[in-house]
Amino acid sequence: MSQSYAAEEQLAIAAVRRACALTSAVFNTLIKNETLTKGDKSPVTVGDYAAQAVISSMLHRAFPHDPIVGEEDAAELRLESGKAMKDRIVALANTALVSPLALGDNEGWGIGPGAAQTDSELLDAIDRGNYPGALTGRMWTIDPIDGTKGFLRGEQYAVCLSLIVDSIVQVGVIGCPNLPVDPTHPEAGTGCIFSAVRGQGAQQFTLSGSDPTPVRIPASTPETFNFLESVEAAHSSHSFNDRVSTLLNVTRSPTRMDSQAKYGCLARGEGGAYLRMPTGVGYREKIWDHAPGQILVEEAGGIVSDSRGKPLDFGLGRTLGENFGVIAAGKDVHGRVLVAVQQALADAKAKA
Ligand SMILES: Nc1ncnc2c1ncn2[C@@H]1O[C@H](COP(=O)(O)OS(=O)(=O)O)[C@@H](OP(=O)(O)O)[C@H]1O
Ligand SMILES: [Mg+2]
Ligand SMILES: [Mg+2]
Ligand SMILES: [Mg+2]
């Protein structure tokens, strides 16, 4: 029997709302020494750490036994050299945690404002994201800022949270503070949340209101179809997407956008397909970069697979393991995109 996951969805929405308020505030005041470069050369800001601390604290309060796979860890913040950053993160996280009841909070589920946390409680909350993942059982994924490079550029980024049970994503919530609420009326403002529960559909509402609207991927037409792809050429191959576009006679140029906002746009009918092919050997996609997006697109009536047509495997640890690339698209076009991707891969192999 399918479960309702009502408490989990409400908590996830409330946590993403609080984290989005925090990241928006951070962007307006971010200064240079509030960003670090991680071992893999990617950036992390006080916003990433503080948002993970807030979401993890709220999860722990509501579901103390659930393990968490979170992108960030607090190792740098525990060093003497990280003290200034840690102090700022603690202040930001506590402001977000104790602020008055945000829309979507529900005290009945214990997800209203909480008490301020100590430094060590907040560092421990960040480090609770160290779960290695598992094939069975419940676990949450947190990507506190997905598309950190987009966040730093003032463009798209997303606060992403999912609940995975026995390797299947059951709840996904994506907050997009910089995304237009209505792409046909950009003047109507920005700030959306997407949310989906397995078997119950997908919805969008505004970051500041409680106005859920169901989202569904419409049938695509040659006039409207184009690819959604990463901004960063290092994250997915733009030239491969060009070849697939040529094979499919796609005339519209791709929409480049950071983060899982791409899954949100696809789910509400923008673009037609999200194609993410690896640029080099070795990088394994992280589960927090795809779990909320996968359930959102599937619940909006689409299909998400890797470049071989296999489902994404969320039960192999912190990465998607052997999955190679991602194709997300409406049901009517996914098969055609998959065939074109296979053709482009075969052409590249023949040339090599
Ligand atoms: N080499 C490589 N290949 C593929 N993906 C990578 C790679 N390196 C990083 N990442 C992950 O990409 C996440 C950013 O998502 P996007 O690629 O959609 O954003 S962007 O348009 O490129 O900025 C980004 O997520 P965040 O770190 O949360 O921003 C990374 O997890
Ligand atoms: Mg990410
Ligand atoms: Mg991130
Ligand atoms: Mg990152």
From TrEMBL:
The biological process GO terms on file are:
sulfate assimilation
List the coiled-coil residues. Answer: none
GO molecular function ontology, one term from the record? 3'(2'),5'-bisphosphate nucleotidase activity
Q: Where are the transmembrane segments?
A: none
CDD domains from the xrefs?
PAP_phosphatase (cd01517)
UniProt-listed InterPro entries: DPNP (IPR006239), Inositol_monoP_metal-BS (IPR020583), Inositol_monoP_superfamily (IPR051090), Inositol_monophosphatase-like (IPR000760)
- Report the EC code(s) recorded for this entry: 3.1.3.7
Catalytic activity reported: 3'-phosphoadenylyl sulfate + H2O = adenosine 5'-phosphosulfate + phosphate; adenosine 3',5'-bisphosphate + H2O = AMP + phosphate; adenosine 2',5'-bisphosphate + H2O = AMP + phosphate
- Name the cofactor(s) required for activity, per the record: Mg(2+)
**Highest taxon of the lineage:** Eukaryota
Statement: the UniProt record of this protein carries the keyword GTP-binding: no
Q: Which residues bind Mg(2+)?
A: E71, D143, I145, D146, D289
One Pfam assignment: Inositol_P
What UniProt keywords are attached to this protein's entry? Hydrolase, Magnesium, Metal-binding
* Similarity comment: family membership: Belongs to the inositol monophosphatase superfamily.
Q: What is this protein called?
A: 3'(2'),5'-bisphosphate nucleotidase
